[in-house]
Amino acid sequence: MTAFSRVNMGDVRAVWLRHFEVYRRLWKMELAAPLIEPVFMIFAFGYGIGALIASEVAGVPYLTFAGAGVLGFAVISRAMFETAYGSYFRMVYQATFDAILATPVEPESLALAELLWATTKALIDALIILAILAAFGAALSPLALLAPLPLLAGSFLIAAITLNVTAHVRDIDAYNLYLAIFFSLIFICGVWFPLDVLPRALRVAAWIVPITGAVDLTRALLVGRLQWRHAWELLYLFAASLACAEWSMRALRRRMVV
Q1: Cα atoms in the 13 Å half-sphere on the side-chain side of 180
Q2: Which residues, including other chains, have CB under 8 Å from residue 59's CB and lie 6 or more apart?
Q3: 105-129 pLDDT, tens per residue?
Q4: Could you write out the DSSP letters of every residue in 199-257?
Q5: Dihedral of the CA atoms 82, 89, 37, 222 (nearest 10)?
Q6: What percent of the chain has a predicted confidence (pLDDT) above 90?
Q7: What pLDDT is recorded for position 155?
Q8: Closest Cα partner for 75 from 130, 23, 113?
Q9: Cα(68)–Cα(65) distance, rounded to whole angstroms?
Q10: Helix, strand or coil for residue 83?
């Protein structure tokens, strides 16, 4: 029996709404990061570093190139943090998971709700940052309106991987290793520079990391240049998302059901 077969979408909706009600009470603080951080990153990378290099990178204005990186980095990181510290606090310190599982809600429904909530927060950030990029002139095509879509797939995938890590973490300090790996991978995923400058072996490794495809798709939509490889990237994100979601739901059941 698959973990997905145990999911009750009514229970998933109820848990998601519970998270949304909490968010409504804290929305001002929750929106601070996506409003402030991208502006400074765009200034630093789009204008600061952009002034020191060629006006275009891989045929794209560096402000747009870096803007796609900022968008992808911030949005996927939000999903990662939500299923890392957010889920861990709900599971361990607040005992929210115990309270939810004391009802008829199954661990698989709880896990999927966590993933969807992390993806929802990523979507909110994506819309805000995309508006900021458009205001700075970094969105060059009407297709930019679709830029959040690949980031949703990437965010869901990273959230699923992170929730699996959370299901195995026994000490909150253990996240230090995971975060070190996550933020190190950011620097080989085409966020700040094109993958073509990397050695071949490192490029192959970079394309395995889901962040790479999500950022590449986002950049393509910002400039309106879609190619056949983007269809394969999207397919990879969806397939990996389903596999990792199944993995994380099984892991959470093992953690919560003794």
Answers
A1: 5
A2: none
A3: 999 999 999 999 999 999 998 998 8
A4: -HHHHHHHHHSHHHHHHHHHHHHHHT---HHHHHHHHHHHHHHHHHHHHHHHHHHHHH-
A5: 0
A6: 50
A7: 95
A8: 130
A9: 6
A10: helix
CA atoms within 13 A on the CB side of 129: 34
Structural domain boundaries, residue 89: 4-256
- What's phi and psi for 140, nearest 5 deg? -100, -5
Nearest by Cα to 11 from 113, 154, 90: 113
Characterize the bridge pairing of strands 60-61 and 56-57: antiparallel
Task: pLDDT band for 97, please (50, 70, 90 cuts).
Answer: very high
Q: How far is Cα 210 from Cα 141, in angstroms, rounded to an integer?
A: 24
Q: How far apart are the first and last CA of the chain?
A: 19
Nearest-angstrom CA–CA distance, 43 and 27: 25
CB neighbourhood size of 95 (10 A): 12
Tally of domains within the chain: 1
CA distances from 28 to 19, 22, 34, 39, 116 (A): 15, 12, 11, 17, 21
E strand spans, the chain: 56-57, 60-61
How is residue 105 annotated by DSSP? -
pTM: 0.91
220: which 2 tokens? 């393509």
Mean pLDDT over 14-34 rounds to 84
Interval 190-216: pLDDT, tens: 887 888 888 888 888 888 888 899 999
Q: How many CA atoms lie within 13 A of 89 on its CB side?
A: 4
